[in-house]
Amino acid sequence: MTFKRSTRTSTSRTRSFSTPSLTTVLGIDPGTTGMGYALLDMSTDPPRLLDHGLVGTPRFGSGAEKLVAIADGIDGLIATHTPAYLALERLYFNKNVKTAMAVAEARGVALVCGARAGLVIAEYTPQEVKQSVTGTGGADKRAVQRMIVHVLGLSEPITQDNVADAVAIALTHAHRVKFAAAIAAAE
């Protein structure tokens, strides 16, 4: 990946991305204190978890500094893993307006990074993710985490909520792609 500073502004960059892997999806759970991510290879059954974790942000950084860290982290993941798809959680109403605004900003950064890299972008509500992973849209976080272990054949659970949610979002997209392919083959 190439980052070049422009002389015009301190945040302007040019990016170089490789040819995307048509079987890789980057799942994102938006957040500003740590954005969960997961990369799944959809060419295997079950999909194979390639990488997962948190895109870190500076603990005492400004809102803008956190968004730059998120953009740099996502750009790095895209350049390293060359996914073809970006799947992320669609925002839902939050009673805490300040938190909802910060998450919306982080989500916007993820959308820009994906669009700039030419990824196919898919968005899923929390209920769609729960339905896809557990079979019920009303499942709690622990049920989702247990099913991720079972479906992906992991040796241990992913207990960090943001990361487990990102894995579930990527898995939801993998299920949708597989289902769409089955429908196309039947037609």
List the helices and strands and how they pair.
Elements: E1 21-29, E2 35-41, E3 48-55, H1 63-81, E4 83-89, H2 97-116, E5 120-124, H3 126-134, H4 141-152, H5 161-186
Parallel strand pairs: 1-4, 4-5
Antiparallel strand pairs: 1-2, 2-3
Quick overview of this protein structure:
The chain has 187 residues and is α/β, with parallel strands linked by helices. It contains five helices and five strands; from the N terminus they run E-E-E-H-E-H-E-H-H-H. The chain has one domain: Nucleotidyltransferase, domain 5, CATH 3.30.420.
Question: Can you give a write-up of this model?
Answer:
By secondary structure, this protein is an alpha/beta fold. It has one domain: Nucleotidyltransferase, domain 5, CATH 3.30.420.10. Helix content is 46%, strand content 19%. It is built from five helices and five strands, in the order E-E-E-H-E-H-E-H-H-H. The protein has helices spanning 63-81, 97-116, 126-134, 141-152, 161-186; strands at residues 21-29, 35-41, 48-55, 83-89, 120-124. Strands 3-2-1-4-5 form a five-stranded mixed sheet. The longest helix is centred in the C-terminal third of the chain and has 26 residues, at 161-186. The chain is globular. It starts with 20 loop residues before the first strand and ends with a helix. The model is unreliable at 1-17 (pLDDT under 50).
